Amino acid sequence: MSSLTTLARPYAKAAFELAQGENALAGWNDMLRLASDIVVEESMAALLESPDVSNSDAVKIITDVAGEAFVGRFRDYLAVLAANGRLPLLPHINELYRALRDEAESRLSVKVVSAIPLDEDQSSRMKQALAQRFECEIELENEVDTEIIGGAVVYAGDQVIDGSLRGRLQKLSNSLAN
């Protein structure tokens, strides 16, 4: 676990609690994602790191770029991040917030790496099987990696299920070597 994730955790929890209090988990998710996208943009990141830009100016710049997308207490939340020099942590905060939201809403984000893109039927069957196994709603992302040869590797939370042909060949190779 990176130290940035450790630093971001209390801010993600605070955002989650604020969002829960406002009954606006989805809205805060969208605002955090947008703020994160803004601060990682190369020229914006350089501008925010400049000693010539005050905390209030940094928040103003970010909110100006976002337009009317930031509502409610989110602007105050950004001001607290800026005052503590934590605006660069927004991508980590966003990731941790999303995990907290997924847990609260009994949803699991799953990445399925396959040799070819999953068609709609395969994706649907994969979601159904995973929902049954993990007993929650599944949010599926498909990534293509031709090096796995065939099958799929499933990343679900802290679990990895390797059903790839490459994985099977590696196991066979290891067992023959021993």
Distance between the terminal alpha carbons, to the nearest Å? 33 Å
What kind of sheet is the major sheet? 4 strands, mixed
Write out the CATH superfamily name of the largest domain: N-terminal domain of the delta subunit of the F1F0-ATP synthase
**Low-confidence segments:** none
Number of strands: 4
Structural class: alpha+beta
Order of helices and strands: HHHHHHEHEEEH
Task: Give the strand order of the largest sheet, numbering strands 1, 2, ... along the chain.
Answer: 2-1-3-4
Broad CATH class of the largest domain: Mainly Alpha
CATH architectural type of the largest domain? Orthogonal Bundle
Topology of this structure?
Elements: H1 3-21, H2 25-40, H3 42-49, H4 55-66, H5 74-83, H6 90-104, E1 107-114, H7 120-134, E2 137-144, E3 152-156, E4 159-162, H8 165-177
Parallel strand pairs: 1-2
Antiparallel strand pairs: 1-3, 3-4
Verbal overview:
This protein has 178 residues and is α+β, with helices and mostly antiparallel strands. It has two domains: 3-102, Peroxidase, domain 1 (Orthogonal Bundle); 106-177, Glutaredoxin (3-Layer(aba) Sandwich). It is built from eight helices and four strands; from the N terminus they run ααααααβαβββα. The protein has helices at residues 3-21, 25-40, 42-49, 55-66, 74-83, 90-104, 120-134, 165-177, and strands at 107-114, 137-144, 152-156, 159-162. The protein has a four-stranded mixed β-sheet with strand order 2-1-3-4, sandwiched between helices. Helix 1 (3-21) runs antiparallel to helix 2. The longest helix has 19 residues, at 3-21. 22% of the residues are buried.
